[in-house]
Amino acid sequence: MAWNEPGGGNNKPNDPWGGGGNQGPPDLDEAWKKFREKLDGVFGGGSSGKSGSGGGGISGALLGVIAAGALLVWALMGFYQVDQQERAVVLRFGSYLETVQPGLAWNPPLIDEVTLENVTKVRNATFRESMLTEDENIVEVKLSVQYVIDDPYKFVIKVREPERSLKHATESALRHVVGGTSMDLVLTEGREQIGVEVQERIQRYLDSYETGIRISKVNIDDSQPPAQVQAAFDDVIKAREDEDRLKNEAQAYANGIIPEARGQAQRQIEDANAYREQVVANAQGEADRFVALLTEYRKAPEVTRQRLYLSAVEGVLGNTSKVMVDVEGGNNLMYLPLDKLAGATSGSVQPSSIGAASGTEFRDLVNRVTEQIRRDIDAQQRSRGGR
To answer: Residue 88 sits in which domain range?
Structure first.
């Protein structure tokens, strides 16, 4: 039943604070006294009758132990470890205090706020946007941005949402660069240059925002035209690939033909040089021979003339087996078969051996032939005179 309902035979309300029949508010001093007596009993204190000065001393010691334990726990909570790849940004009552380097550190908890940031981890953000090119065509570009935290203080303090600022800077830079580039370059070989320009522009934006982010690399992962014209662009790309393939084949053919042609040209040049050297040497030899003959001719003109004549006749007759002889004083042109004459006089001598015979033998043969021709002519003349 409720404490204010009448109970027992005296019709007095039940007072949970032991106030008897008094219906006023509970006595707080009496309640605190009872609580202390129970607490002293739990921790080995005196009886309830000794709740004077002795009870107050025990309560103060207990409170000191509790306070010391709480202080110890509070102090232990302030220790933390900063890894080698991390930096700790410390705020005291919301204001920047310091940036802690790697190692064991301590800051008072509930007073300082510590934020750990990894400054070596390469993070990646991917974006896909549709935009207009310089020639007013629509392209869809997908790119990925790799970045690291370069300044933890700026990353934590200067900007509320650095990744969001990165997203806005990337969209702005990409639209600016693609908007000044033709669609053909965006879809083909211009991707690499676009990535470089976008990276430089994003970094300028982030530096002006003081985000503390450093861009490592911007990659254009994909760029596509609208789906309605995708087939046409695929044909264009295939045609370019065929063009490159044919160029490579032509270059390979040229690489095989040109060295061979250069080798043949060099060989002809060497042959021409050799022929030139031969002609010059022969001419020089003939000139030297003519000078030598001239010297000998001046010493003995008749002998030298006869020797030159015989040498010339020997050279001419050595290459033929038939000679036509015009004898002085005769009217007929005689046919002289040297091969037969040589065979009759010296056995079976081949025409080739005539040219190889010595000068003396040849002169003897010519003299005999000439003498025989003269005798024949004289005999003919005598027979005509007798008639």
So the answer is: 80-118
Tell me, what's the pLDDT at 323? 62
Tokens of 386: 């007798």
Task: Supply the angle between the helices 53-77 and 28-42 in degrees, to the nearest 10.
Answer: 70
Residue 147 belongs to what H/E stretch? strand 138-149
Residues 262 and 305 in one domain: no
Assign 3-class secondary structure to 27-58: CHHHHHHHHHHHHHHHCCCCCHHHCCHHHHHH
Is 80 in contact with 72 (CB distance < 8 Å)? no
Per-residue pLDDT of 292-317, as tens digits, reads 888 888 888 888 787 777 777 777 76
| Residue 237 resides in a domain | no
Domain final residue, candidates 261, 283, 299: 299
Together in a domain, 147 and 171: yes
Q: pTM surpassing 0.70?
A: no
Domain final residue pick, 281, 299, 317: 299
Residue 67: the pLDDT is 82
